[in-house]
Specification:
By secondary structure, the protein is of the alpha/beta class. Helix 1 runs parallel beside helix 2. The protein is built from seven helices and ten strands. Strands 3-2-1-4-5 form a five-stranded mixed sheet, sandwiched between helices. A five-stranded mixed sheet has the order 8-7-6-9-10. The chain starts with a strand and ends with a helix. A hairpin with a 4-residue loop joins strand 6 and strand 7. The chain is globular and about 50 Å long.
């Protein structure tokens, strides 16, 4: 089974190809470029280096959200375009599940943190449970936008050490140090940001389990309204009060 993975849900842009649990190629960049400038050229470079016929992939796995509204739209549009052009199904991989998959097999509770601004994070909590030769990923706290202090309170109520990762870590590192009562640590470079390799790898698991959609059915999962939508709603609300 060959899966193409795409992730542009945050600051990172990433493209990968996984075949039968082997990572054939991955290109990840976290730099001052917009994903509209980087994602397709990265994909073309990976395709060329692998001499890959894109028609040979079985499915396209894409980070489906939450995340940056612009980034998710770019990734979604790219995946949908490829799905339509190649006649391939899409596998929607929740961003936070893909992040957690970076630490596959760890015995710690995995807590991805994405900075959602306004003192909030997109977050969730997962645990890997042995299942024969592999591990199943159990959801302990479902993904949601939440105040960082509230999330830390929930983690404190769980039993087990926690490992944090994601672009929310540098933003809230001091809050974690001050408020997290459980034993904790931080993932290191290479595994602490979004990776298309994890999106493709987890996407392969989901695809084998029958979790895929037609390109026309795919929609990003934003979890909350954009800033422009929130500001418009506030103006309407204030207008009614006046």
């Amino acid at each position: 089974m060959k899966i193409l993975g795409l992730d542009s849900s945050g600051l990172v842009a990433s493209v990968a190809v996984v075949e039968d649990d082997v990572l054939l190629a991955e290109w990840t960049i976290d730099y001052k470029k917009t994903h509209s400038q980087t994602l397709l050229p990265m994909l073309e470079e990976v395709r060329e280096r692998l001499e890959l016929d894109l028609h040979s992939v079985d499915a396209i796995a894409v980070s489906s959200g939450p995340g940056s509204f612009t980034g998710l739209r770019i990734g979604s549009a790219t995946a949908k375009g490829l799905g339509f052009a190649l006649g391939k199904p899409l596998v929607e991989v929740p961003t936070l599940e893909g992040l957690a998959w970076n630490l596959y097999g760890t015995d710690r509770i995995v807590c991805p943190l994405m900075d959602a601004r306004r003192n909030q994070v997109y977050t969730a909590a997962y645990r890997f449970c042995p299942a024969g030769e592999r591990f199943d990923m159990q959801t302990l706290i479902t993904q949601k936008p939440v105040d960082i202090a509230e999330m830390l309170d929930q983690l404190n109520a769980l039993e087990g050490a926690v490992i944090f990762l994601g672009d929310g870590v540098p933003v809230y590192r001091e809050t974690i140090r001050r408020c997290c009562k459980a034993a904790y640590g931080f993932a290191r470079a290479g595994n602490n940001r979004q990776r298309a390799a994890s999106i493709a790898s987890l996407g392969a698991v989901y695809f084998a389990g029958g979790r895929s959609v037609d390109a026309s059915q795919h929609r990003p999962e934003y979890l909350r309204k954009s800033q422009a939508e929130r500001e418009a709603q506030e103006q309407v609300t204030h207008g009614k009060k006046d």
